[in-house]
Structures
1.
Amino acid sequence: MALKIVKGSIDRMFDKNLQDLVRGIRNHKEDEAKYISTCIDEIKQELKQDNIAVKANAVCKLTYLQMLGYDVSWAAFNIVEVMSSSKFTYKRIGYLAASQCFHESTDVIMLTTNQIRKDLSSPNQYDTGVALTGLSCFVTPDLARDLANDIMTLMSHTKPYIRKKAVLIMYKVFLKYPESLRPAFPRLKEKLEDPDPGVQSAAVNVICELARRNPKNYLSLAPLFFKLMTSSTNNWVLIKIIKLFGALTPLEPRLGKKLIEPLTNLIHSTSAMSLLYECVNTVIAVLISLSSGMPNHSASIQLCVQKLRILIEDSDQNLKYLGLLAMSKILKTHPKSVQSHKDLILQCLDDKDESIRLRALDLLYGMVSKKNLMEIVKKLMLHVDKAEGTTYRDELLTKIIDICSQSNYQYITNFEWYISILVELTRLEGTRHGHLIASQMLDVAIRVKAIRVFAVAQMATLLDNAHLLTGNTQRNGICEVLYAAAWICGEFSEHLENPTQTLEAMLRPKVATLPGHIQAVYVQNAAKLFATVLKGEEGNTDSTAAQEASQLMIDRLPLFVQSANLEVQERASCILQLVKYIQKLQQKDVEVAEEVNALFAGELNPVAPKAQKKVPVPEGLDLDAWINEPPSESESEDEQPKAIFAKEEPKHSRPRHTEVDEKELARRREARKQEQANNPFYIKASPSSQKVYQEAPGVEHIPVVQIDLNVPLKVPGLPMSDQYVKMEEERRQKERAEKKKKEKKKRKEKRSGRGKKHDSAPESEEDITPAHMVDIVTEEMPENALPSDDDERDPTDPHKALDIDLDKPLADSEKLPVRSHRAAEAQKSPTDGETENATLPEPKKKSSKEKREKKKDKERDRKKSKDEKKKKKHKHEDKEEDLLGGQADEPVLQSEETSQVAEPPASSSTTAEVSDLDFWLSNAPVPSNTQEAATVVAAAAAPAASVTAPNSEPDEPKDTEMEEMKSSKHKKKKQKKEKEEKEKKKKKKHHHHHHHGDGAGDESVQNGTVEEEEPLPPMSNYCLLAENSYIKMMMEDADEVYDIQGNLQDGSQVVVSVIFENKCSSFLKSMEFNVLDSLNSKLQRPEGSGPHDGLVVPFQLPPGVSNEARFVFTVQSIVMPQKLKGTLTFIVKNEDDSTHEKLDFKLHFTCTSYLITTPCYSDAFAKLLESGDLKSSSVRLEGVNMPFHHLLARICFHHHFSVVERIDSCASMYSRSIQGHHVCLLVKTSAQTVSIDAKCDEPTLLGNVLDEIKQTFSQC
Amino acid sequence: MIKAILIFNNHGKPRLSKFYEHYNEDTEQQIIRETFHLVSKRDENVCNFLEGGLLIGGSDYKLIYRHYATLYFVFCVDSSESELGILDLIQVFVETLDKCFENVCELDLIFHVDKVHHILAEMVMGGMVLETNMNEIITQVDAQNKMEKSEVSASLKICYLDQIQ
């Protein structure tokens, strides 16, 4: 032994440590990869050694290599080994490695549960600390569930160092195991007032993270946080709290009212910029949440803006950045107060820092007016030219377009200028936003009629110079512009000066290199152009021009006919045939122009976004009505029609128009028009400008936006946008002069032309361009559509599961501060439950009901999958289970919902809680209008029994139904004890662990069953020892076996962990644990005590709490399983009296419990088998259907074996007893049969172990 | 929440990487490269915040970094963290390193990345700020190092005694 250690440490001296590895890598710069691969080989060798120091060193090196990007997951098991070292030095290395490379799908994680639990309860605080730190990085749902209770206990540890870590890690536990939130929350809340500032800060941290995602559940904590805010001096805590308030205020404007004053004080008093900034931010949030227009708030806004200005003017770029960021928040609600700092923001546009420029760009959006738009855009265009990175340039481009197009081009006075800006933007290299420019071109050309002549000329030039855009492959994005150009030239070809030339440009062979969809547009619009050319040549006596055009088409189109793009091909061949036909007619001197033009007659109008949605449902069409009468016998099942009638619900599939005659149609159309006319959100088209497609009924009712611009400004050629700035100036001056004369007249014109007058900035006076389209933005929202946050949330967001009503457990706290599923037993008699329900005369408040409904929905989603699994699982379970599981999902869900709904104390005290908050909030003088904006909480506080009537009706039958379900559940619970034990034996798995933190009672069974389907099922050796109505004892299957080396002659020691759980509502104390010793096994008692004295359990149990104690036994012979009888005595202390109680139990030491997981290498293993000292035995297991790795994991876990080698479906395993017996297994599986050949130097032990293995698998 | 903490030098060589969300090794390397690319091209006197790259983050996340001599310290955080607070935290981190290593330089981080991890573990845990008080951090780190030393010397003593026997 000693020699081994010496040898080990000598070996170590020659090993490479981390520093050597790093040095080596640095010395092998040329062949780094090769060097590292040799290092990895060395590491693999080191990992095979027994010496833990060598292993730890190897793992440490692996951690470094992981950082360099090498996958080290193959060493996961070795990492676990190092983690379980008793020495802190190695343990820390192990946990660090685990935190760097373990994740949810690392399968060895499930082996760590007990190790971590042991470390968590280690007397050394740093062992605990290191375990907590590691766990925070790789916690899985299984670990979270199994360890939640241990961590919760640590939250009350005596050392603040542990407390703060335990508090912080709870957040991760909540994320992975949402059920733990409710039971743990009271204690978490307690920690908000922990004497240690670090713990307090951690608790604030966790609650802030929780509240950020689901703020409404944490509103009731507002008074507590308010107190903290006014009392704390820790800036870090203050920042977190203030940030939290920022998230809460939108839900409760009155809270905002209360906050303003202390926040303002902080703003004035604090010297910490970070705190100041967060205060300003939250004040902004408050101001946004409050209804505007309150006189005394302008002061707050002024204060904020003023402080932000100081930040922006600061030389520190960070403050500048943050100032701009906060400014943009104010901009949304109080644009005017930001506009006064325009100078500053424009200045920031020239900042050398890109982040700051980007923030300033965001603000620009609110800065523009008709007066300065051109100037600002000009400045931006300069930036575009100077910009280096494409990202920044693209950002600029989108911003320019955003700014110009906002509010339906509200600020553009001269569209020719805008078109030329767009054309200039096409010269940008490598932009991704070609399509954006294109859509703007199309939009403007379509909406602004007066600009078409100009736009067409510009587009024709673009088409002519298409090679400039397409020349470089890098400019791919920009060729989208040609799409717009071609379409505009085609559609408005009557405005073209020289259509033939453009036609020629569109049919150049080079076009074939463009993307398919653009070619398609080219071909189609070439046809339009062709029609225009024909029309132009009509009446000319000389028809050569027309014939030349036909010839051009016939010559060039075949190129497109060969296109690989179907759309292009189809259009081209169609048009080619058409032109050929036309050519024939031309040769016969037939006039064709009119007919060809008729192909493209009519005008295309822009359709408002969402217009389709807004098409009103015709009168008399009820989309919810049955098309066919439902079969009468199924009427009662209307509530759950989905599954049954899914195929019979083609509600929308029927064509509506077929049955309606023309007259009816006309009538409806009239009605619709009437309705639209009265709808302020509808865009009204001026009837004169609109052509109607008669052949498509209903099309004309789609809202159409049109802007008519009647300022003809002839600018020949292709002018630069800059020119327009100048021209615009002149024009405005001129007009200002004219205006004085014509003022009256013009106003009239405006009114009659538009019917609307814009009311913005003072400069609108001098503005004459009638380009106003107000309300267009609001129009785009469908009626009655409210933005719902829930829709936007990612369904995979883990925080969704944390949307849990936290007020409820608080209410239940009189009964059970920590809820566990055993608690449900308290009301296990069905009569109890029913009377409770009976005395519950609609206690539901409207909003709490809504909340619950929402929650139900969410839970439903979550549970459905669970239930489905459950169903499958329960097929083989007893009949009663089958009844439940066999029904449709719905009843199962409902029964769970009832248990929620039927919690009278909960809902009533929620109200109490809520009204507390209400009271606290209403302490501040509340202005009348905020009161009107009835908040969720206020609504909840108001008695709303009548409100629920219409809503709850459909629910009520369900409720009673559910109650029945529930009572049947209760009955079931009566038999719980036996059943539980049965279950426990049946699945020697660890469902019982749910008591660690299961909020809803009924769920535990489910959870347990669901687990079986998961890739690697969680396992635990805890089994029920004994239970009565006061206490429950769970024994860990004596799996932690301490082997005191060198002490073997004295017999071995076995440590038994027992979890005591208080199930009643009284305090349990003076617990004494006693066991009747047998000859072979003895409980180790402290020196001086007699052989029959009990051991005092070193803790007391408040209601609902559980804790773990360990007892050491001395065992002589380990070849046979042992049973020991024992008794636990304790005092149940109620408020007025206390009684003495006892509980008998039997401790069962299996032979397995004498085995220690000992890793073994294949060579050593082979030698062992060869030695011939071992007796062999074998066993066959039938009907085991689980994946092989599960099987191995089970043997490893339950029977303390380690896998030596695994080849396909065959594995060798090894374990060693505490007295040094070797046990070797060869496990083979084929189909559902598993054969285990075993060898051991002690046949009795082997026989017993095999029996136990057999039992394990017969139970699953 | 802090999503990741990266330290790399002026050439983008990683000196420490701590991801509080799982990525595979390749993605981690890509993130480090991308972050280096984003950060390294920024001038010295510009602000210390930038919007996250494509791989890490998204709109809610920010990169907050500081540049010290040859090293970049980059924190990727979401909007629940105070920007200026994190900047202070980086400062605390570096000052702590300076105390623990006595005039810290890049070489210390190169050869003792494990120690840097241990120090960081006392400041940030699972992506949440654990402790911001430098003295407290140093006390805990020192106590753990002392434990480690005592274990090492104990095992050496055993070796020594064994050899004597």
2.
Amino acid sequence: MEVCKSTDISLREFGCEQNLLSRPDGSASFIQGDTSVLAGMYGPAEVKVSKEIYDRATLEVLIQPKVGLPSVRERSQEQCVRETCEASLLSFLHPRSSLTLILQVVHNDGSLLSCLLNAACMALMDAGLPMSCLFCGVTCAINSDGQIITDPTVAQEKESRAILTFAIDSTDHKVLMSSTQGSFSVYELQQCIAVCQKASEKIFLFYRDSVQRRYSKTL
Amino acid sequence: MKDTPLSNCERDFLLKAIEEKKRLDGRQTYDYRNIKITFGTDYGCCFVDLGKTRVMAQVSCELVAPKETRPNEGILFFNIELSPMASPAFEPGRQSELSVKLNRQLERCFRNSKCIDTESLCVVSGEKVWQIRVDVHTLNHDGNLMDAASIAAITALCHFRRPDVSIQGEEITVYTPEERDPIPLSIYHMPISVSFSFFQQGTYLLVDPCEREERVMDGLLMIAMNKHREICSIQSSGGIMLLKEQVLRCSKIASVKVSEITELISKALENDKKARKAGERCGFAESMPQERITALKMDETPVEMKNVTEKAEDIVKKYEAPPQSVPSPLVPAPGVGQVGQGQQNSWGLEEEDGEKID
């Protein structure tokens, strides 16, 4: 059992803007440090007969990279985001409808998957879709000394030996989705999950503050 | 996903208003919507807001082999992505008619007008040249995507810096941005397209149509010009018959608009250059408006780490290691791998027909 040293862990500054596009039903832009993602959400809307599900809504996630056409990497990221959204959306309330979530990568400076997850959650909130819980994404990296860094930049990710991303839900702080690359021990995995759970509390506080600010004039 | 169809009363209302020289948003016939240009963190990324229409352009470069017919010229590649985010009518993957039209217009506007010096992009004649790729993503479609895309593309090209290359005899060195400052592309002129929409068989004309106006228009005239009053390309679609005087009048209007827009682009580029020189952090994050109620920013926050090691140790101790359920693989013959042992078939076949499967 290696002892994991953990120094001061911090999240980069983040910012969010909701409802910035006029056409989509819900839109949000989420920024973590220099990583920035724009999310747009359409739904519930008409669904093609070939894709309809009789008792729930069909969720489709599209990730557009900045340069070039979407490739296998985007497909696997789409899978991660879709599984997380389906776990938290109350899709039984909208049978035979389609929910389309489009994520555009604006700039990638590390922790891209967690930024995609955060932008997705804010767009779903902005669209007013019924959800059983909110979710957030946190990335942490383990570098060669065994230190855990949260919210790594591209330079930090390059030097690390493992990168782990977890989607954490807001009610029980449990893990909804995990996506990892690199090698690490069981002990390090549990440490990273505990760190991400602590970090997610800050992000949920941020969600609460932004929604409170947004509706401060109406409520 | 289908777009909501336009109702008849909406159509009649719009056409009647145009006959009375009124527009939905209160603009005059020749007025453009508010144009806002912002830049991203890295060179070559820019956002253009034309009213509510939003478009993002990103320029990137790569060293490739040149075309055989032009061995000492670089390659320019344009790609407009009609993202499904921009409108529910845009579907991913499928090349719709509008997408083909916009791509072709963008290529004619920039590549055929030779606004970029492609010979300066040559590194080794016949072997290695720079390929400049411009990706334009449409983020919100509220009409006039072509103009927004052309402004975004030319601004991104002016903003872009390519890595510096030095040739010493046979050796070529490409320097990273940290080693040597990247150099801008050599751009001769800035073509900008201006769109005119025609209604009632060419009787009424509007500049910069919004999405509703585009739906009821009869035809579209697109003129791409630069500030030196040179026309780079003209395209008329929709099958309307235009008189010579109308086309000349439109080109005069276009030259006025183009000089205003070119002024705006130069100012935005100047401001960005000054900000980068002063060492300020540039990018989408900084340009996010703070005073809006729908936007919020939080500074760098530390995360408390008090109980993490104890919690992790507890969990690992509580749960035993998973059982070794997968047997190790065998190699009975070269090229054959076997994991596990087969079992008897339990389909209940008779003895004569059934065979023991190992």
